[in-house]
Amino acid sequence: MTKTNANSGKTLVIVESPAKSKTIKKILGNDYIIEASYGHIRDLPPKGLGFDIENDFKPTFAIIPEKQKVVDTLNKIAKTAEKVYLASDPDREGEAIAWHVKEVLKVPEDKIFRIEFNEITPHAIKNAVQNFRQIDMLKVSAQQTRQILDRLVGFKISPILWDKLRNYHLSAGRVQSVALRMIVEREEEIEAFVPVEYWSIDALLSKDKYDFQAELVKYKDKKIEIKNKEEADKILKDLKEAEYKVSKITPRDTKRNPQAPFITSTLQREASSKLGYGVSKTMQIAQKLYEGIELGEEGAVGLITYMRTDSVRVSDDAVAAAKDFILYNFGSEYYPKTPNDYNKGKKKNVQDAHEAIRPSYITRTPESIKKYLTSEQYKLYKLIWTRFMASQMESAKIKNMGVEISALDYTFRASSSKVEFDGFLKVYEENSEEAIQKIPSLKEGETLDFKKLISEQHFTQPPPRFSEASLVKQLEEYGIGRPSTYAPIITKIQQRGYVEKVDKALKPTLLGRTVSKQLCEHFKDIMNYEFTAGMELKLDEIAENKANSIKVLKDFYSPFEKTVEQAKANMGKVVIESDKICPNCGKKMVVKTSRFGKQFLGCSGYPECKTMMSLDGDIPKPPAQDEETDYKCEKCGGKTVIKTGPYGKYYQCLDEKCKTRKSIVVSSGVKCPKCQKENRDGELIQRRSRYGKTFYGCSKYPDCDYAVWNEPTGEKCPECGELLVKKFLKTGNKIACSSKTCKFSKPMGDEE
User: Fold this and answer.
1) Known catalytic membership, residue 306
2) How many Cα atoms are found within 13 Å in the side-chain-facing hemisphere of 284?
3) Domain 166-193+468-570 and domain 197-257+397-459 have a common topology
């Protein structure tokens, strides 16, 4: 009797991430097998360009070594499956991943199909399965063109930087280098900025004991500018005995319209502004919300639509669902006469491949699922949910009142705003740049009680450094990069040591400034904003069959190759000098990079002078001195000393023939919770991971594998009974639960 394969007759669905497998499996049922490719399974070879320039840039792809097991598993299941659906993400990168998977599957092509969905909901998934299609080779071509362009820039320019700056940790990138240029130019603007003095004068006035302030804005009906203290004092003297009369009242009713639902860049900016999240953190949380969250008995549920998008388009179904929710929960006055349309006047470089970022299920309010979410997931989901709901609601109606007040030849102005109808503000609080004061009911011609004049000195301020979010906004405005590239770009320029974070702002390092300067001087096109944005548009045109991939690559390569050769010949050796002076010999300190990629300052007089210091000028502490001890060597009985190494203190035998070492165990004094349950006498001792990070593990290891990263207190959590640990954070030191699922914490020293 022939043995029937368990997968025979079933459909294999291949997704990118295993995290979404549970959610999709629950929707499709047992007739479907859900497997993951874990992202890309093939890539250009790590060495060399990986494509033949002379043969129309034909690429050669190889299976990524660590993905060979994944490929074998997919092939094994695909051979017995009736159909194979490639369900990678709904963008160019996802289309390319689907094509690569198709290329490695050893099954007939006529049983492999592409499906895509913008949200992981029953409707979207089932609709995708019913509307399968062939792989869009135009999208694949656009993605490969981007990949080849990026490889050309990286592989041709990076070796020049290695040679000229004598640093093998450097790299150049088609988009990352332009982002670095933006940060460097902003820093140069800040340094070149010359503050200009100016003064403001406000009058504190009153009516019926109701105080309010009015700003001096005109002199003899012309805008006034007060440049220094002398001018301010003269005005104060003029107004000393003045009478303050209401000369003009201008009521004005305005509408405040809701903003469009989030796209990738606006979500990153708002999460940064309101929640303090970095770009990468925002995308990681959003990815999890998209792939699915376990909602108790319901199982895994995808909560938001795909989070890499530059389109504000919303499906008709979502618009209808939002309308029903608004009418039922808020009333008809909160829904506009016609649905809000945010596609009018959209940018030309918007791909519009899928929808804006919105909740998959309108009825899953943030509060209704809060208990299933981490604090960060809840905050981001609430931001997305409220922004989308607000985008579908009626505008807010604002009653504004402007008041002009005359005093001799001077005019003061005060204004107030009152929300007459809250509209979308019912659900979404916008950031208010300044507080609007309330002013009393006034009439033209009436005289106000004068309290005092307030004069203040000010200076114009330089532009701020870019935050991650404001850099994304700038890249988007220039048309540089795409939603899927913002977070990797910002991460990479920090990893390379070109940029560092200072109070959440991006500051270029000496290395970053030097690299940017050299690239701007020798690779003008690559570093040009318009050129880089134009290349993005050409990639879009390839995907739309309006441009030819090979022609785009040839047009780029010919002048680029000449530029590379000129840079090799003309770029001189570069030494990155700092403003620090060697404390030992008086020579300049220069930026150097260790073999591990760590930057530091070293004396330019090396090797005669070996002085080193950190980038901020701190000289490293001298090595710890050996400590005497009565402890005898366990191997030979000889005398030992206590030494301090990178992993803590240890005993070192002084006998030249022995030299035995023994680490010194630092006990926390806390019994191992796991051992206590199993009647063992283990205790938690200080250990080091293979990467040098301190943690506390059981002394009975390997029999007991209990470990925590933070110093244990010996107390138990009042909520779940797990061990409490000490956490030393920038926001304040805390006692917190060691369990990942328990959120209990209290300030250190709090006795409750």
Assistant:
1) yes
2) 8
3) no
What is the rounded distance in angstroms from the CA atom of residue 666 to the CA atom of residue 227?
A: 65
How many CB atoms within 10 Å of residue 548? 15
DSSP 196-226: -EEEEEEEEEEETTEEEEEEEEEETTEE--B
Question: Which tokens hold the place of 402?
Answer: 């402007």
Q: Report yes or no: 134 and 106 within 8 Å, Cβ to Cβ.
A: no
Q: Please state, in angstroms and as integers, the Cα–Cα distance from residue 115 to each residue in 12, 368, 588, following that order.
A: 12, 31, 61
Inter-residue contact 14 to 35 (CB < 8 Å): yes
Tally the C-alpha atoms within 13 A of residue 552's C-alpha that lie toward its C-beta: 25
Beta pairing class for 83-86 and 112-114: parallel
Quickly count helices (H) and strands (E) in the chain. 17, 35
Instruction: Encode pLDDT of 178-222 as tens digits.
Output: 999 999 999 999 999 999 999 999 999 999 888 999 999 999 999
**Tell me, what amino acid is at 440?**
P
Q: Left if phi > 0, otherwise alpha if psi is -120 to 50, otherwise beta: which for 296?
A: left
Q: What is the DSSP string of 425-466?
A: GGT-PPPPSSPPPP-----TTPEEEEEEEEEEEEE--PPPPP
Matching residue, tokens 């859900």: 34
Tens-digit pLDDT profile for residues 428-480: 876 554 456 788 889 999 999 999 999 999 999 999 999 999 999 999 999 99
Indicate if the alpha-carbon torsion angle 307, 309, 552, 475 is positive or negative: negative
- For residue 203, the model assigns a pLDDT of 95
Tell me the three state secondary structure of residue 599.
Answer: strand
- What topology is assigned to 264-391 in CATH? Topoisomerase I; domain 4 (1.10.290)
Distance in angstroms (rounded) separating the CA atoms of residues 469 and 7: 47
Q: Give the pLDDT confidence score for residue 732 in this predicted structure.
A: 61
pTM above 0.90, yes or no: no
Confidence of residue 752 (pLDDT cuts 50, 70, 90): very low
Amino acid at 738: S
CATH number for the segment(s) 11-135: 3.40.50.140
Note the pLDDT tens digit of each residue in 378-422.
999 999 999 999 999 999 999 999 999 999 999 999 999 889 999
From the options 2.60.120.10, 1.10.460.10, 3.40.50.620, 3.40.50.12280, give the CATH code of 166-193+468-570. Answer: 1.10.460.10
**H/E element, 493:** helix 486-495
Each domain of the chain, given as residue ranges in start order, spans 11-135, 166-193+468-570, 197-257+397-459, 264-391, 577-613, 627-663, 667-747
In which residue are the tokens 């305005």 written?
A: 254
pLDDT of 677 above 90:
no
Cross-sheet strand order for the sheet of 588-593? 577-581, 588-593, 599-603, 612-613
Structural fold of domain 197-257+397-459? Topoisomerase I; domain 3 (2.70.20)
Q: What is the 3-state secondary structure (H, E, C) of 291-356?
A: HCEECHHHCEECCECCCCCCCCCCCHHHHHHHHHHHHHHCCHHHCCCCCCCCCCCCCCCCCCCCCC
Closest CA relative to residue 43, chosen from 86, 88, 96: 96
Candidates 277, 306, 335, 410; catalytic one:
306
Q: Quote the DSSP letter at residue 395.
A: P
> What tokens were used for 428?
């979404």
Among the residue ranges 361-375, 493-507, 622-636, the one predicted with the least confidence is 622-636
Q: Which is nearest to 119 in space by CA: 376, 362, 295? A: 362
Sorting pLDDT into bands at 50, 70 and 90, what band is 1?
very low
Report how far residue 26's alpha carbon sits from residue 88's, in angstroms, rounded to the nearest whole number. Answer: 18
Show Cβ contacts of residue 389 under 8 Å, excluding neighbours closer than 6 positions. 322, 325, 326, 362, 424, 427, 428
